[in-house]
Amino acid sequence: MAEVTVTEHLLLHQKKSPHATGQFTGLLYDLILSGKIISRRINKAGLLDILGGTGEINVQGENVQKLDDLANHILTWRMERCGALCAMSSEENAELIRIRPEFPSGEYILVFDPLDGSSNIDVNINVGTIFSILRRPQGHAGEIRLEEVLQPGANQIGAGYMLYGPSTMLVFSTGQGVHGFTLDPGVGEFLLSHPDMRIPRQGRIYSVNEGNRRNWSEATREVVDWFHTCPTKDGGSYSSRYVGALVADFHRTLINGGIYMYPADAAKPQGKLRLMCEAAPLAFLAEQAGGRASDGMGRILERKPDHLHARTPLFIGSADDVEAVEGIYARFKNDQLP
Ligand code: AHG
Ligand code: MN
Ligand code: MN
User: Fold this and answer.
1) Pocket lining: 326 vs ligand 1, CB cutoff 6 Å
2) C-alpha distances in Å from residue 146, one per residue of 22, 156, 284
3) Nearest ligand to the C-alpha of residue 208?
4) What is the CATH code for 205-335?
5) In the CATH scheme, what is the code of domain 6-194?
6) Ligand 1: residue whose CA is nearest its atom 2
């Protein structure tokens, strides 16, 4: 069988896309290389002294794991030098990272979660890197301003993730469908394994941290209860799965269908997940694969962040399942009208 490498795939698609440029392909190439390096370090995590916490608390108020730090360093170091970026934003850095003048710069902005699901590392469960690529608004020059970065997800030029699981996978979209590649560690290349991924219209799995139930609103309880009782397409019951690493829960949802939910609650009134580095890139993939992504009221991709680390509730996956959630929230909203 002819194996298609990710580079061949990019070049092929570059020809079809009016947006893609050599600079953009170079950006993806360096991002993919960073992912391969992170994957290798994670595979050795138990052997090297890089498990556990650093003792620091990040901008999100969470414990920084040593691998969070390592993945962030690998990405920021390489991507700062790639020549395609004018700025980066990482989940682990409070401020916008502007490309320093000693490095060549370009027209793109990279937003990433260097290691998603990092609380899973110590128990050897999947983690991943999520990325979002934006373009600097046209007609702007000089040092990039924060407002130029705070764009809605609908503006993304590309988005994806690297999943470090039993095998390492790269899943991404540049607006022409969603394609999945599996790392062949012997060859050191990502090979096309999942061309043109599509989310089934309705699934049979719901995924949510039910431990938060006592903090949920009545509407949110009703949303989750819907999946306890509604029938699947063939009359069966929904099953529950929750890895606790968004990237892994999303990957399952992309392949099998169903819905992943992280609602707002009394302890997290804005939701937990980050709009720019988690929700928006996965929403881009979901829509490209024929699914939907919502904050319960409307499209995630239309939400404009008011700061780099803005959070959002997230309901993502099969179109029918996400639509059912929006229907329930809309009913509650209407009930409150006089
Ligand atoms: P991160 O490891 O990048 O901080 O992200 C953790 C996120 C996400 O991956 C996951 O779905 C969610 O937190 C799990 O949260 P709970 O433990 O509250 O369920
Ligand atoms: Mn994360
Ligand atoms: Mn993270």
Assistant:
1) no
2) 26, 16, 22
3) 1
4) 3.40.190.80
5) 3.30.540.10
6) 117
